[in-house]
Amino acid sequence: MSxxxxxxxxxxxxxxxxxxxxxxLAAEIRxxxxxxxxxxxxHIGPNLGVVELTIAMHYVFDTxxxxxxxxxxxxxxxxxLLTGREKTFHTIRQPEGLNGFMLRTESExxxxxxxxAGTALSAALGMAVxxxxxxxxxxxxxxxxxxxxxxxxxxxxxxxxxxxxxxMIIILNDNEWSIDKNVGAIAEYFHKIATNSTYVTLxxxxxxxxxxxxxxxALHVAKRAEEAAKGLVGRGMIFEEFGISYFGPIDGxxxxxxxxxxxxxxxxxxxxxxxxxxxxxxxxxxxxxxxxKFHGLGPYDPETGETKVPGQKTYSEIFAETLTKLAxxxxxxxxxxxxxxxxxxxxxxRPHHPKRYFDVGIAxxxxxLFAAGMATKGYRPFCAIYSTFLQRSFDQIVHDVALxxxxxxxxxxxxxxxxxxxxxxxxxxxxxxLRGVPxxxxxxxxxxxxxxxxxxxxxxxxxxxxxxxxxxTGPASVVKDQPVALEIGKAxxxxxxxxxxxFALGAMMxxxxxxVGLLEAQGLSVALVNPRFAxxxxxxxxxxxxxxxxxxxxxxxxxxxxGFGSALLERVNEQELAVPVVRVGWPDQFIxxxxxxxxxxxxxxxxxxxMSKAAGxxxxxxxxxxxxx
Length: 629
Ligand SMILES: Cc1ncc(C[n+]2csc(CCOP(=O)(O)OP(=O)(O)O)c2C)c(N)n1
Ligand SMILES: CC(=O)[C@@H](O)[C@H](O)COP(=O)(O)O
Ligand SMILES: [Mg+2]
Hints:
- This protein is of the alpha/beta class.
- It has 3 domains: 5-289, Rossmann fold; 315-468, 3-Layer(aba) Sandwich (Rossmann fold); 492-628, Rossmann fold (3-Layer(aba) Sandwich).
- It has a 7-stranded mixed sheet, sandwiched between helices. Strands 1-2-3-5-4 form a 5-stranded parallel sheet, sandwiched between helices.
- Strand 2 (140-145), helix 7 (152-164) and strand 3 form a beta-alpha-beta unit.
- Helix 10 crosses helix 12 (255-266) and helix 15 packs parallel to helix 17 (394-402).
- It is globular, with a radius of gyration of 27 Å.
- The N and C termini lie far apart (73 Å).
- The mean pLDDT is 94.
- Bound molecules: thiamine diphosphate, 1-deoxy-D-xylulose-5-phosphate and magnesium ion (MG).
- Magnesium ion is lined by residues 145-147, 175, 177-178, 182.
- Thiamine diphosphate binds at residues 74, 115-117, 147-148, 175, 284, 364.
């Protein structure tokens, strides 16, 4: 029962509450999050960790006049509950429902959208400078997790802040977790501060002090904690060195302390950072015990935290098992992830080859350069980075890997529609952004067994390669014990035909087979081709069917512009073929979040969609066939 929460229609309602009522509100929000996300799925762990932080932010600051910028913004559910979306919160990440991240078009309180990590500090600085230039007085508050500071862009911003603005507030939400435990020197640095004995004592005393002395004590605690932290790590506080005044660490669940501290920070005429120590998954024991699992997941049992055990291996698992096999036979094979060991399933590889597993943090550009360096020494790096996150590393792929023709393999999980995460996470652009890179081969398997073959082919290939594969499961093909090497640039003809040729790339093979059936039902002779390569496209195969057939149809889980269909069109044009080509893929727009099948139907990435798009050409061919009978 959410007695107070149901009265919150805007942050103004939060400001009316006493600290006691705010504490009750926090409890109600936790219960709502646990129960609601159990049904929808989502980032429950991160959001349970920022309940008090977000309440205190909305109590002290004043959106939309003040601007909040959340890094990744996967932890913005509490913010959404407090900014007029309590009644629709049950639709989060659901078709037509609330987005799982902040979205400028969703609310005036969402001053900046996100989904990818490391963007908050830079965007907040841009807002602060714009405010300064316009003579504004509003507050700009960036909330960034500890793992956001493993990202290079965050440090590009830190380097710039003190030189550019007089006022900006950074909240470092330190729960010591990324998706897995946070990694690297910065994580260790924050850990040292957070576990400093003086701070821990202070933290224990804080509750009592605040109770006895109210607000003033809060400042005392914050200052003493700051002294402790600075005492521990000297004046060389990393933030102080960047000209940003450091405060904390303080208990990120102590509402009174947070409110007092935010009110104090509001008065500061300098860039400040508050180091808040929080607990990911707080208030839900399964999420506390399973912080990695409950970072982000599908529906779960709100009592036990149990989730449905998937019946079939995902592409990610096949990837990890295959990589383990390749590494068993080749000690130069190494695996690199950018803070996504579970999403990429490299968690399954790590126990077999712990010394050949590298998690570099949320640092995709660095991951690619790190791989390039290893490749110059004869290693075979498999860089497992989601298609969407690899967008970050385009220059490193061109300038460092391809230009030097280094044998780095890019394993792009979530290649294609991602689903519930929406437009920030759909992997719909990697063919476009990679096929122009000289020397790089780009593969897209039609099933799990072919993924293994492509990984083996990539390992043997003396140059850069990229393999994209979708989120979730495939057609459950049997994976051979020993993968085979594919001929680079050679398509596979699954069925011959002479009227229409269907080129179904990767995960679209299922719809390709259905399309063949629909065309054959029209009395047509239909070829079915598994392209395998988006670069190089098999020009010979295109010419063979371009000369023989009256129509070529391409299907891809990728944007049309610059995708596989575009590449095939170029081969048609170069070979002066007259055959019409109908391309089926995502249109030139960002695709909303939703269920994969629903969205494919809505946007015509189905056999029926292809038939309707090709109806004119198909009708003409059918007519011609009838005329000669
Ligand atoms: C560029 C990029 N790489 C990877 C991810 C996947 N990702 C989402 S949240 C997250 C961990 C964030 O950790 P932190 O910033 O500490 O926030 P917390 O979840 O702990 O609140 C990662 C790696 C991403 N969103 N963007
Ligand atoms: C917030 C974030 O970027 C990750 O948690 C992402 O949502 C994971 O995506 P998958 O669920 O597809 O692994
Ligand atoms: Mg964290």
